[in-house]
Amino acid sequence: MGNWDLRHSCPRSVANTDDAHTAPNPHESCYHRSLQSTLTSVRASTRPNWAEVSLSALRHNFRTLQQHVGPAVTVCAVVKCDAYGHGSEACARALERAGATWFGVTSADEGVALRDAGINSRILILVGAWRGEEGDALRYGLTPTVSRFEDVEEVALAASRIGRRESVPVHLKLDTGMARLGLPLAELDSFAQRVKAVPQVELEGVFSHLASAEVLDAADALRQQERFSQALRTLASHGLQPPIRHLANSSATLGRPDSWYNFVRPGMAIYGYELPLVQSDGQAAAQPRRLGLQPAMSWKTRVISLRNVPAGQALGYNGTYVTQSPARVAVIAAGYGDGLYRKLSPGGYVLLRGQRAPFVGRISMDLTIIDVSHIPGAEIGDEVVLIGRSGDERITAVDHARWSGTIAYEILCNLSERVVRHHVE
């Protein structure tokens, strides 16, 4: 199936559909006609806290991953959760120009937003359509995931309601051991028999998700791969051979070539992170060659206050940090309201004038104190790098995750909306 034709993305009228609640507005997408706007201001943010997303890095990462898996394997660029905090619409446009023909999203909402942004490539709803979203998914040419036969029935009903004549491609998600989403394998025979009787639906793809893809000798991952292979054989015994088969996330794309089949779903790798592969004992695994992926996001702020403080001065809320000697401290315009984890202090750093400056005192909602005693010439207005490079120093989301006891995914995805994303080359 080819790319979605945007000329048919919005019907002339929704007056005869179940979704019609208000009169059409030619300046709004049909999906949003019934929704009240929550926009209260169009003023551009001038607060000195922003993220820079390198579109050239994104394109490099996509092309590098495509070269890594080879031309026979499709790279589905996962842009869910606002492209892991990077800004899904601008990222998807850049990736589409780089050759991406598939995108992965969480929900119909995310898929519709990409269509409204002009994305023409195929879009897979990885979690599936929620009740009532099936019609919008079909009108916008999104590809639903199904995990139950009831999901197939809902898609078929939606196709009938909107008068769709051609069959709807869907991807079947299987539960191979993660026990989160997906059709239980014990129900696969029954599902296969029943789905063949639904002409409105075409089983285009089948997939599952590995719970421990980064643990290269994980017994559970090997069992999942074996169960997935058996599931493909079961489907074939019913005359079903979905042309698209996928199992690999970023870690599997990097380190498990036997899981690639003909379609991979990298997320973090698209944004430049080659996360470490390990053994089940926690030791580093023998790494495949590094691909040279480039972290696409830098996060920056500025010094907004400077002062000299004496020894014995308590800093910040509850005075959790007390200076041991006279110090020069700076306040930066960043806090947990922006996604800067409170657990980063103590132990974490920022970059200022090419040097590391430690967090001191508690990180608050909007402001954070850093020690700049060792950085001569620091001034109000100086650029401060929270994630990214300054001089020869670099801080990544992996560093933030290590300092705060979480994972790099959470660091990037939790970047607040008030941190303006600037997409640059």
Q: Can you describe this structure in just a few lines?
A:
The protein is α/β, with parallel strands linked by helices. The chain is built from eleven helices and 20 strands.
The CATH topology of the largest domain is given as: TIM Barrel
CATH class descriptor name of the largest domain:
Alpha Beta
Radius of gyration: 24 Å
Q: Considering the protein shown, what is the CATH homologous superfamily of the largest domain? A: Alanine racemase
- Give a short account of the largest sheet: 9 strands, mixed
SS field, number of helical segments: 11
Instruction: Estimate the helix proportion, in percent.
Output: 10-25%
Strand tally = 20
State the distance separating the first and last CA atoms. 32 Å
Low-confidence stretches are: 6-38
Beta content comes to 15-25%
Shape: elongated
Question: What structural class should be given to the helix and strand makeup?
Answer: alpha/beta
Topology:
Elements: E1 49-54, H1 55-69, E2 74-78, H2 80-84, H3 88-97, E3 102-105, H4 108-116, E4 122-125, H5 134-139, E5 142-146, H6 149-161, E6 168-175, E7 183-184, H7 188-195, E8 201-207, H8 219-237, E9 244-246, H9 250-255, E10 263-264, E11 297-309, E12 314-315, E13 321-322, E14 327-332, E15 349-352, E16 355-358, E17 368-371, E18 383-390, E19 393-395, H10 397-404, H11 408-413, E20 420-424
Parallel strand pairs: 1-20, 2-3, 2-10, 3-4, 4-5, 5-6, 6-7, 6-8, 8-9
Antiparallel strand pairs: 1-11, 11-14, 11-18, 12-13, 14-17, 15-16, 15-18, 18-19
Helix pairs in contact: 1-3
Task: Please provide a written account of the structure.
Strands 1, 11, 14, 15, 16, 17, 18, 19 and 20 form a nine-stranded mixed sheet that branches. Helices cover 25% and strands 23% of the residues. The chain has helices spanning 55-69, 80-84, 88-97, 108-116, 134-139, 149-161, 188-195, 219-237, 250-255, 397-404, 408-413; strands at 49-54, 74-78, 102-105, 122-125, 142-146, 168-175, 183-184, 201-207, 244-246, 263-264, 297-309, 314-315, 321-322, 327-332, 349-352, 355-358, 368-371, 383-390, 393-395, 420-424. The protein has 425 residues and is an alpha/beta fold. Helix 1 packs across helix 3. The protein folds into two domains: 49-271, Alpha-Beta Barrel (TIM Barrel), CATH 3.20.20; 297-395, Lyase, Ornithine Decarboxylase, Chain A, domain 1, CATH 2.40.37.10. The chain is elongated, with a radius of gyration of 24 Å. The model is unreliable at 6-38 (pLDDT under 50). The two termini are 32 Å apart. The chain contains eleven helices and 20 strands. A hairpin with a 5-residue loop joins strand 12 and strand 13 (321-322).
